[in-house]
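Standup notes, structure subgroup. Blocker cleared on the zinc ion input:
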Amino acid sequence: MVFFTELNDRVVGAPSILAADFANLADEVRAAQAGGAELVHFDAMDNHFVPNLTVGPVVAASLIEAVDLPVDAHLMVDNPDNLIQPFIEAGVTSISVQPEAVVHLHRTLSVIRDGGCEAGIALNPSTSPTFVEWALPYVDYVLVMSVNPGFGGQSFIEEMTGKVRQVKEMTDAPVEVDGGITEETAPLMVEAGAQVLVAGSAVYRGEPEAEMRKIIEAGRRAL
Ligand code: DX5
Ligand code: ZN
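Run returned:
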């Protein structure tokens, strides 16, 4: 299944599960879907690459069984290579890795693609897109982090609009943005060229259906 490859010029919303009620994950995702979400952003953290710990392929598999949306795994972990096959088997449709945590990035991206998933690179706020320039031909999307990964509810780093622009000058691959995305910041990222709006706390701090819809509509108005 492809998602990013067939986005064309569309702007879409993706709830981040990090801010959801993990005891009711499927219902939380369905609520965001009712508000127009087309993708689930699944945050995997290992307490090494980031100082937080979340969930892995076992939970992804259960969620995929229960909901009717593609699931995008964002691996904020050291040695993501060990987790790629389990996530593919769980049924995710795309996997992004943090290149700061990978030694042989070309190989890692190839394994993701060979497993039938779309491959993404997630850039920390301080990581330059030039760091991954030679890997860009092997990615299906670029995830620009607009907070330091690890926690939800952090403040949007406004300079990351410039990074989205820089990435768009380097590749035609769609840009996903993650961190501090709200009704107010989504338009800034869309104006810069972002197409996939990930939002955690902005969706789940209120009524997820309405909040997801507001973010998507605000982003689309900026097109
Ligand atoms: C941050 C995660 C995000 C997080 C975003 O490390 O990668 O996906 O859930 O949360 P908000 O939208 O609250 O900034
Ligand atoms: Zn994320």
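Discussed briefly. The longest strand covers residues 40-45.
Next: hand off to the docking folks.
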